[in-house]
Every structure is written in C-alpha cells, then in structure tokens.
Structures
1.
Amino acid sequence: MTQEEQKALFRRAMEASRRAYAPYSGFHVGAALLAEDGRIFTGVNVENASYPAGICAERSAGTAAVTQGCREFKALAVASPDGEASMCGICRQFFSEFSRDLAVIYGKDEEHLTARKLCELLPSDFVLPKA
Ligand code: THU
C-alpha cells in the first residue's frame, strides 16, 4: 500500500469516528477495513451502560464485513479525534482469525501514521487445538 492509500483509508476511519457512540469514555473511534476484493467496511465503537457489552470500532467493521460475506482483508485503519488509538488485544485476536498479514494503520493524524502487520502486533495468537 502506498502512503497516499494509507492516508485515504485513515481518513475514512476518521470520518466514521464521528458516528461513534462513546458517552462513557468520551473516546470516539472509527475503523476502515479494506477487503482483498477492494470493498471498504467501516465501524465505530459502540459503548453500553453495562461496560463490557460495548464493542470496539475495529470489531464493528469486522463483523459488518463478515456479515456481507467478506473474510479476506488487506488493511485496517483506526482513527480517533481524541488521540492515537492502537488496536486492543481482543481486536488483534479477532482479526488474526482471518488475516495474519493484515496491515494495521494508526496514528494521531494522517501525517503521523504507523503501519504494522497484525502478526507483529500479535506474534502468538490463540488457535483452537484440534480434538
Ligand atoms: N476502543 C476502540 O474502539 N478501538 C481501539 O483501538 C481502542 C479502544 C474503544 C473501546 C471503548 O469504547 C473506548 O475506545 C475506550 O476504551
């Protein structure tokens, strides 16, 4: 992916973050997931009064994609107007199910982006042992 493509995906994530529902943390996050077939799925964090019932922006985007029959992903950008959002452990494991080579793009703004492969962010994922 070129830097311009990374920035464009990050912009989609930042746009989505405007629709985040984050009344408890005040941390608004958007994610933009680029599938291998070129489709882009967005997601936001959706919090809940029962805190653990909330979901991160990354998994919102991932579940939207899988719902549409898409399971192969190239890149995921994560953005927040409230500060840098680096993907949490649960989301790393979630995407590891589908694309170990996923490029994860994040940073405080589009001029300060970091791109890391998911397998670097989660070197040892959980895989269910075969019975
Ligand atoms: N959050 C995300 O949506 N993605 C991240 O990468 C980090 C954290 C959300 C979860 C919660 O709604 C809020 O940010 C504060 O943790």
2.
Amino acid sequence: MLKPNFKEAKKRTKEDIKVLREEYVVPESVKEIGKGKKYFIKTYGCQMNEHDSEMISAILEDMKYTKTDTYEDADLIILNTCAIRENAHNKTFGMLGRIKHLKQTKPELMVALAGCMSQEESVVDEIISKYKWMDFVFGTHNIHKLPEILEEHLNTKKLEVNVWSNEGNVIEGIPAKRDSSIKAWVNIMYGCDKFCTYCIVPYTRGKQRSRMPEDIISEVKDLISKGYKEVTLLGQNVNAYGKDFKNKDYKMENLLEDVAKTGIERVRFVTSHPWDFTDNMIDIIAKYDNICNYIHLPVQSGSSRILKLMGRRYTKESYLELYKKIRNKLGENASITTDIIVGFPGETKEDFSDTLALAEECKYDSAFTFIYSPRQGTPAASMEDNVSLDEKNERLYKLNDVINKYAKEANDKLVGKVVKVLLESVSEKDSSMLAGYTDTMKLVNVKADKKYIGKIVNVKILEAKTWSLDGEIDE
Ligand code: SAH
Ligand code: SF4
Ligand code: F3S
C-alpha cells in the first residue's frame, strides 16, 4: 500500500526533472484481461483530467476492455476525480454511494478511484476505512502504471492503494484514445509551483514540469496528419512553460510560435496565470492567425489586499495594465474570460466591491465564478473566515449579474456579423442544428447539414443569447 502524503507532495527540490520514455508497459498476464469486459470512466474537474481520462481509456483498451457510456453495464468503473472545491468532492462520494448498491448486486464489478482526490491523504484514509469494497486507487503521477496496479489487485484481491506523492517526472509514450477527431488536448506541462494559498493543485499534481518542445510539436504534427483542426495546449499555468528547463532558453512564446508554424488550423491554450504573461507572447498571438484570439485570464479577485492574501503575485492595477495591453494589441474582437472567487477568508464588503468594479471595467466575455471552498492542507484553510454563507451567496449572485450582463453584450455585438465556426457535432438543444465554436470560444448553433461537421465555415449570426449564438451558414 502506498498512501499519498501532503508533506511530500508540497516539497520542491532542485532535482532535475526526468523525461521517461519507456515506463508504460502492459504486463503479459493482463494483456487480455479485459476481453469481453466493459469499462466506464466518470471524469470530474478540468481539461487536464479530461485528457487523463483519454489516456486511461487507451490503457484499458490496450488490455482489451471496451467502452460503455452506462455505468450499470460496466465491469470496471473508474472515477477520475477533482479536488478543487468541496462540491467536486461531494459529487464523487455521492457517485460512490450509487456504485456501492450496484456492487452489491454485481460482486465481480471492479471500482477504482483516480485523479486529484486520490492524491489527498484524508480521502484515501476515508476510502481505506469506509470503502473497503473498492478495488484500487491510483493517482495523477502513475496513470501509466494502471496495468501493473490492476495486476497487483487481481493477485491480492484486496483494495490496492498505489498513489505517489513525488514531485513528478515527464512520462512520454502513454497512449490516448481521444474523444474527438476534430479537436485535441495536448499537455505542454504538468503540475504547478505557484502555491496560491487557496489551491490544492500544487499538492495533487506536483512540481511544474514542461514537456520537451520536440515532443509537443511532433504530437501536433501527428494530429494534423490525422485530420485534427484544433489543438488546446494544456497546463495549470501555461505561460510559465519552459521556465523549468535548465539547459535551454525556450519559453511559451517560442512554443506558441512553433505550434502555430505547424499549420494546424487553430491553436488554443489554457490556463494563463497573469504573472507570466509576457509582451512577446501577446505579439506572437497577434502575429499568427491560427492562434485563437481567446485568452482565459483568471483574476480571482479585484481587491489587491485579497490578491496578496491569495498569493497571486499581482495587484488589481498590474492586472488591469496587462488586460488593457492584451485588448489593445488583439483588438476589440478578441475574447477575454476569467475565474473569480468570492468569499475568500476575510473578504470585506469593500474588497467585494473592488471585484465588482473590476468586472464592470473588464467587461469579460464570460467568467467562471466560485464561492471559496477551504481545502485541507492549504494555507487559506487556516485563515479566519468570518463571512457567512448567506453573504457569500449574495455576493456570487451580484457578481453573476454583472458577468451575465457583459456576456450578453459581447454576444449582441456579433448579431449580423459573419464569423468563422469550427462545427463539431450535432447541437445538444436541437438535433437539426450543428454546434461549434468561434475562434473566440463562443458557442454557435447553426442550421446546417451534417456534412459540415469537422469544417470551419462562415456563419452569419442571427440571434444572441447570454451563453450561445444562433446562426446560419453564409456561403
Ligand atoms: N491554474 C489556474 C486555475 C486552476 S483551478 C489559474 O491559476 O488561474 C480553476 C479555478 O478554480 C481557479 O481559477 C479558481 O478560480 C478556482 N478555485 C481554485 N481553488 C479554489 C477554492 N479553494 N475555492 C474556490 N474556487 C477555487
Ligand atoms: Fe492553483 Fe494558483 Fe497553480 Fe492556478 S496557479 S493551479 S490557482 S496554485
Ligand atoms: Fe480538479 Fe485536479 Fe483539475 S483538482 S481542477 S482535476 S488539476
């Protein structure tokens, strides 16, 4: 049994990050273990988890499992979890409750926990004491070891816990079974060293480790050869890409330029921490047409006092300066979105009005807004929190009103205009329509024939809603 350990997870040594290329192996004894069996993966959390689930799928299919979308039909259920807020945590435990019932009627069913919650000591302790019926637990650092962990569990028939709390390496050569054949996630870095005081990610994902540029570029080229139209470069803090290289000076601006030069039709990247956003990066985004004019720039709070307590390393003023620089360079048509937390410990009415004022000033295209959720083991969890939940809810409503107003306004501006949309799928709201995104990440529903799926088309916008647009093909 290898349990997670927060003290270890927090450590950042000067040790070199290794790129390991031969770590993923499927032992002979489990190569056919999934024959005639089905797997189901439930994914919570961010895009990194979505991409990890694509890897878990490919690994399971290497062992001959086939996918099912209904967990009741599965022989193996994997919950790929998120630890960012209490409600993500609660959702997983709710799902485990339902699965427990299923396991009672289907004792051969295997159930596993993966992802960021597996990296939490308190969660794994709870699993060991109250969820002994589960089969195995693995973490974010050892996805590639899944076949061996499964093999071990089959040998012992006991709950197998195998979670690493090391700083982490870069593991190349893990296969991925991508959910889409049109757009793809591409990891460019793992982990995070920012240690914002409220955030669990640096503990669950380890030290910042950038992938080698040549590995990223060859993945993008391979995706182009398979017909992919769009890549999203992924990391918790992509602007810090390359800062961990000891022997070369190669940063996010270099990578963005090299990815743009591959000729892929669209390049996106998330998430940008304001701290590492350089002028050169903005220039590169402006220079290449295939780098999308869409910047997700989480601000978290509009109060410099709270930003300091959050450990964000910028002030309201320096954020606004960066925001304006990006707007001026990319133009009014660029889209900028953000993340905001309300009710951080000690947030006063004045702090919150600073946040509202900032939202009014930035007029974001959209935003994810959250009520602060204390995460065990982070510095903010031991700060005094004297704002009531009612007050926090009220602040969230007020903030959402402002966010929604400007989201609608940004969409209204597009009515009558012709925009380029990458059509991806049949629309969820109307099966006679297709859905896709503009390069500025606006969801557009379009009356169009299915033959347009996978194509970038000109669409005339007919109607704007708060969170989507309706349009028709403009030929
Ligand atoms: N790396 C990104 C954020 C990743 S987490 C960045 O630094 O910008 C996504 C969002 O979840 C964060 O931007 C933050 O707004 C929110 N979040 C993180 N920890 C949280 C917590 N403890 N409570 C509430 N929201 C949180
Ligand atoms: Fe969390 Fe901050 Fe890292 Fe983002 S930059 S993942 S908020 S610690
Ligand atoms: Fe959640 Fe882990 Fe992502 S905590 S937001 S799944 S990095």
